[in-house]
Amino acid sequence: MKNQAILTLLIDQQEVLKVAPDKLSPRGCEFECSNDELVLLREQGEHKGRYRTFKIRLGLFPHSGPCPQYIIVSGQVTSLRRCSQQVFRVFLSFHDVPQNGYRLIAEHISAPLVEPISLQDSIKSNKIISEFPRMVNS
Hints:
Distance between the termini: 47 Å
Order of helices and strands: EEEEHEEEHH
Strand order of the largest sheet: 2-1-5-6-7-4-3
Largest sheet: 7 strands, antiparallel
Shape: elongated
Structural class: alpha+beta
Number of domains: 1
CATH topology: Thrombin, subunit H
CATH class: Mainly Beta
Helix content: 25-40%
């Protein structure tokens, strides 16, 4: 099973919401939240009702290197859909992603590049490789 990413929304260096996104891409993510958590995503004061722009700390689990690795990006709510009376699906888009952030996200969502093989498969492949020159010369 693939490791889960950790998405933490920050306002003024304070953690506002910590969730595990259902879908993740280099351009954004998607997650579910409750009606109470939805209030945290909206502006207060003069621009009441608009969605806030967040600093997002994204904890990723790449296939190589130390786990987890964190990147900080800016993000904003792109879309909001009601799934049920108390559950909403939130779509966030990422902005100001550092260059290595794209690589880390892509590595997190991709399959491992090297898959372990069994000893028998290794022996069979070595045997085929050693017999290949004789097959070509015949």
